[in-house]
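Task: fold both queries, return C-alpha cells.
Query 1:
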Amino acid sequence: MNFILRSVYAIKKNKVPINRAFYHYSKLKLSNLVTLYSVTSPGDDFAESFASYVHSEILKKPWKIVIQKKNQTIEFQLCFHEKRCQEKTDFLKKLLSSKL
C-alpha cells in the first residue's frame, strides 16, 4: 500500500491534539496499522499488533474508538477482520498456534 501516515507521536510531548484525532483515525483506517502507536516503528507495530490481537481475538475483549466531529462520526476498530490487515492476522494466527 502506498500510504504513509506520519507519526503522530512526533508531536510535542507525544500527544495528539484532540482536534486532529478525527483526521488521524480516518487516515489510519486506510493503512494496515492496528493503532496510532503502531506508526512509530516496525517494532512498535509488531508489539501493538500482537497485544491487540491477544486482547481482542483470544481474550475476546472489545476495542473500539468513536470520534465525533460536528455532524461526522468515525468508528475505529481493530482491523483483524478486514482485508487491509489480512497478512498480519494470518501471521499472528500462525505465530500463536506455533505453526510457523
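Query 1 returned. Query 2:
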Amino acid sequence: MKTFAAALAIAVLLLGVGGSAMAQQKPEDAIKYRQSAFFIMGQSFGPLAAMAKGDRPYDKEVAIKNATIVEFMSKLPWDRFGPGTDMGNTKAKPEIWENMDDFKAKAEKMQVETAKLLLAAQTGDPATLKAQVGETGKACKACHDNFRNK
C-alpha cells in the first residue's frame, strides 16, 4: 500500500507540473501522454468490470485500489488534445476538434462517473459497484463511439 501511495503522490506532482509543460510539449509526446493515461485507466477498469460480470471474485480492497486509479487518471488526458495532436500515431478522430464542446462534455461526464465509481467501490457492496461499473462504462463508450477510431 505504501508503494501505491508513493506512486499516487508522484503522479499528483507530475500533474501539477504537467499543465505548464504542455505549452512546451511536442504533439507526439502529448499523444503518448494521453494514450498512457487511457491505457492505465483501461488496465485498472478491467478488474472492476470482471468483478461486475462475476468473472472475478469480488474483493473490496482490489475494487477500491483500481477505482482510485481510474478516478485519478480520468483527470489527466484532456489537456493533451491540443493543436497538432490530431495527426500521427493516434486513434483520435477529427471530430474531437470539430466538436470540442461535445468532446469536453463527454469527458466531464466520464469524470463524474469515475468519481461515483470510487464511491461505489468504497461501499463494499458488489451490487452498487456493478451498477456503477455499467454507468462508467457507458460514459467511456460515449466518447469511444463518437471520437475514437477502432
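Both queries returned. Flag for query 2: The chain has one domain: 2-147.
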